[in-house]
UniProtKB/TrEMBL annotation:
Cellular component, GO annotation: mitochondrion
Name this protein carries in UniProt: 15-oxoprostaglandin 13-reductase
Organism of provenance: Oedothorax gibbosus
Pfam assignment, any one: ADH_zinc_N
InterPro entries to which the protein is assigned, alphabetical: ADH-like_C, ER, NAD(P)-bd_dom_sf, Quin_OxRdtase/zeta-crystal_CS, Zn-ADH-like_protein
Keyword annotations from UniProtKB, A to Z: Oxidoreductase
Assigned EC number: 1.3.1.48
Length: 241
């Protein structure tokens, strides 16, 4: 029988692919999830996975995801508080880019390059990732927050085609909207992991840092500004009612 492809994806950083020849059941899903076949980055145990904005909303889940797949996880962040969070999540190498030069650390400590990058910043950070990518490496582009407020910030002198060619690398875009049909299945799986304490989620509703929860339409505006301030930890959430 021709294998049927199913996609177990959602708003999750690293998505899954599985194949089946019979009706799917919970056990099978679990097995596939444990196998961690990743559709975009195809991470496998032992690979070096670099996650930018690792203490961010998407990033802190990506760290746990890659750790669960037994990868060596490198996370970038910008404060000591975020460093602490990443330590607790099991990040193997934390690079606080306000204190250390990301390119320098990668060149020195990861001579052969990193295998996979989960990238949400863009600009210089993306260039650094590309320059320090291993042969056959994959960069999953999830966002580009460094240019959201200033489109002119995107200017690269890098010869991207030559580097991609030389490294036989892949640049992959990830859009959550492309995997809508998988949301419910995946949501169930995540909820289970969350309830079992295997997945930690960090919510930042603004209260701790600004004194007030992000609330209503005005709260959404404050929340977006806060998200772009670089101070948030975990997923920034605004409550509508
Ligand atoms: N493709 C998709 O389907 C999808 C879905 C959801 C979100 N996204 C994108 O994924 C990214 C992550 O989303 P998120 O909600 O989890 O946000 P986030 O990562 O929590 O974003 C905020 C963090 O970005 C980091 N950052 C780095 N450079 C920055 C700069 N120049 N200006 C502001 N912040 C900077 C800061 O942390 P550090 O400085 O500590 O690194 C900041 O705390 C965003 O770009 C978002 O648009 C994509």
């Amino acid at each position: 029988m021709e294998p049927q492809r199913i996609y177990l994806n959602s708003d999750l950083p690293i998505s899954l692919r599985a194949y089946r020849t019979s009706p799917i059941n919970e056990q099978e899903i679990q097995k596939q999830v444990n196998e961690m076949l990743d559709m975009r980055a195809r991470i496998v145990a032992g690979e070096k996975v670099l996650i930018t904005s690792a203490a961010g909303g998407v990033g802190h889940i990506a760290v746990q995801w890659a750790k669960a797949a037994e990868c060596h996880v490198i996370g970038t962040c910008s404060s000591e508080e975020k460093e602490q969070v990443l330590k607790e999540l099991g990040c193997d190498r934390i690079i606080n880019y306000k204190q250390e030069d990301v390119a320098g650390v990668l060149a020195k400590e990861y001579e052969g390059g990193v295998d996979v990058v989960w990238e949400t910043i863009g600009g210089e950070m993306l260039e650094t990732c590309l320059a320090n990518l291993a042969q056959n490496g994959r960069i999953v582009i999830v966002g580009g927050i460094s240019s959201y407020k200033n489109a002119n910030a995107v200017s690269s002198k890098m010869d991207v085609p030559s580097i991609v060619l030389a490294k036989a690398a892949s640049l992959l875009g990830f859009r959550r909207g492309s995997y809508r049909e998988c949301f419910s299945t995946y949501f169930k799986h995540l909820t289970q992991h969350f309830q079992e304490g295997k997945l930690k989620t960090i919510i930042d509703n603004g209260e701790k840092s600004t004194g007030n929860e992000f609330f209503g339409m005005e709260g959404i505006i404050r929340g977006v500004e806060y998200l772009q301030s670089g101070k948030s930890i975990g997923k920034v959430v605004a409550r509508l009612h």
